[in-house]
Write a structure and sequence with these properties.
The protein has one domain. Strands 1-2 form a two-stranded parallel ribbon. Helix 1 crosses helix 2. It is built from 6 helices and 2 strands. It is mainly alpha-helical.
Length: 111
Amino acid sequence: LSGNGPVRDPNDETQNEILKVLRDNPDGIGEVIRNAPPRFRGKTLLFIDQFEELFRDVSFQSYPDREKELSRFVTLLTNSVSHNNPDIYLVIAIRSDLITECSHYRGFTNL
């Protein structure tokens, strides 16, 4: 190791850039995929299993900005499969007894 400080993983910077795009841009998923290196572009399947955990997780339920974060996440997901992103597909697995929770988010009712 050189005396120039700790060795940094170059992926840390990339991950931070991706997180910033996802936090700041309602079409962040599409933007991240469109700006990915060519070998990662193309048809993309987003598969989310146990989606109901967003509604059931007790620690998340007490989170102060829970509704705001859930709404932002739903917006990211629904925008990812918009006409702007024709090669992104979304599959969400959720328990049937909690599917009505999704109706609270307009984006889901429009899918």
